[in-house]
Amino acid sequence: NAGVTQTPKFRVLKTGQSMTLLCAQDMNHEYMYWYRQDPGMGLRLIHYSVGEGTTAKGEVPDGYNVSRLKKQNFLLGLESAAPSQTSVYFCASSIRGSYNEQFFGPGTRLTVL
Amino acid sequence: DQQVKQNSPSLSVQEGRISILNCDYTNSMFDYFLWYKKYPAEGPTFLISISSIKDKNEDGRFTVFLNKSAKHLSLHIVPSQPGDSAVYFCAVQITGTASKLTFGTGTRLQVTL
Lengths: 113, 113
Prior knowledge:
heterodimer, A: 7-stranded mixed β-sheet, 4-stranded antiparallel β-sheet, globular, B: mainly beta, 6-stranded mixed β-sheet, about 0% helix
């Protein structure tokens, strides 16, 4: 099993450009999440999904959109990138229910110039 | 408003000694508590967890302690090994909220020879 994979690993954008980050998991998990990690701030939840076709906002959703068309994939979109979105983005997944840990992907390092 | 705090940004411990990492939270609704370990350029990996009905959970060299009245948890690593050098995040969860995690800011542990 590959677990949680993220594409791409690195990306540099100019302000105003758009891009999509892809997350895929092969563990048949119901729940999926997108976080960002900034220096000194830990990981913060951007958006999450509890199943195919459903998404919800997390702690810092502004400037991002998401889609979950297939159970195994969770896409994070930036429509008009800003320097404040320079960060490391992590995708995670977990099984349905309570008292469950999340499994994380390796991250995507995004720089917006 | 930081709901989860790790007040020590870094910790240095000699190999073979005990490492103690601390975490404080503010919301008494949190009922599941996790520790994640993160190496550079990798995603966080789950280490150990504890539910609010317990005050201690042990897994090999790792033990997590929960003091609900003080809203405090700690991770003990005994004995510490050089491979334990990483950033450690505590994370908290409320049952029934799609397993969403709120993370602390992390503590960088360095285990020296």
